[in-house]
Amino acid sequence: MTAQEKLSIPPQEMPEQEPGVRARNMDEVALGYPAEAARTEASRCLHCAAKPCMKGCPVAIDIPEFLGKAAEGDFAGALATIRKSSLLPAVCGRVCPQERQCQMHCTVGKILKDSGKAVAIGRVERFCADFEARAVEEGRLSPPAPELAPPTGRRVAVIGSGPASITAAADCARAGHEVTVFEALHKPGGVLVYGIPEFRLPKKIVEREIESLRAMGVKFETNFLAGRTRRIADLLDEDGFDAVFVGTGAGLPKFMGIEGENLIGVFSANEYLTRANLMKAYEEGRADTPFWHGRAVAVLGGGNVAMDAARMALRLGADEVHLLYRRSEAEMPARREEVEHAKAEGVRFHTLQNAKRILGGEDGRVRAVECLRYTLGEPDASGRRSPVPVEGSEFEIAADTVIVAVGNGSNPLVAATTEGLEVDGRGRIKTDGAGRTSVKGVYAGGDIVLGAATVILAMGEGRRAAASINQDLSAGL
Asked: Up-side HSE of residue 475: CA atoms within 13 Å toward CB?
């Protein structure tokens, strides 16, 4: 097929549940490609010699190679190529912002002068991972056997079980080290299980990836709060670990510091989503955790977490959901796909507006949000135009629930209980760029280093840190 013929192939659309149906169920919204669509989409790749798409991939997947195999129908071979660099293809294919990473550099999109027409790399990746999973479930294929080096006798502790930690654990286990993952919550998976909703990332997929680690010999210890249950120094000096990787993430919720945030009915997005995702509060009558029955919900923020919270509120029975963001929609950090899904499902967007204070009744419960209108001024340090309040523009939105989704800070406990561990002004652990911290034998990666980032960026951090651990342990350091 010539390059011109490939460019003439239209992008393949992903089947989805109808908005009016999915807004009231927890099933996955995007239904995935059928095999022929996956092959057709993969065949749109031009196989550029320079492989510009790989520049946008934090773990350097050989994208043209896996797309070439997928186009031929060799989905197992495509997945094998992906797995050389990524442990979580089914996850990344669903939740990573490919439009700002690999697909942003795609030559097809550039030639067609439309980034939306770039090869849908993430969707093909997802299909390949799901294809194998179905074959294994149906008994047509055996689970891929992990390739492990001979045991080294060295022991590695991994703190946290999110994307960075899962990746670091896998790479250290492959090197022959004994790996134990310590997780504060009662289920492993980190943000993949407590943060990202079922309708975007089914939890059985995360469980499958955790099982693949167990098959490699990785041990998991849950209900372990690093810095309280044991300190990092205890793991190194008393428990016999030769190295510790810290991947505790950025799960400390931020609030706006406005009047009324202590009213009944105000939640951080973290708590709201954790109750629904990890603790399955939506299974009322079966779950052990209650949830707040909000009917008129206001969500403050414009990122992916805000979209997740707003869409979850609909699924938990809200009659109306309002999303307030102080910039325009063009400045929203959320993925475009998530914004469009939220709109289609009925979330009402209020851009260039933000909460000034939260109003309560005599019973101490939320009754409304007093808002202020904004205009856009000059760009700030982030490159986005700064929001400027319009004096005297106050108005109210009736609400009985407010969900604050304006960002998260770094988990402070490990740094506070680890002598000599250097952090920056935001509480993020400092590293040398290869995962090594200021404390010998202690490494870090993911959101605890980057701040809140993407799954694939966290995985890249975990991979770099694991390489340093393996190198240092091999050298006897």
From this structure: 8
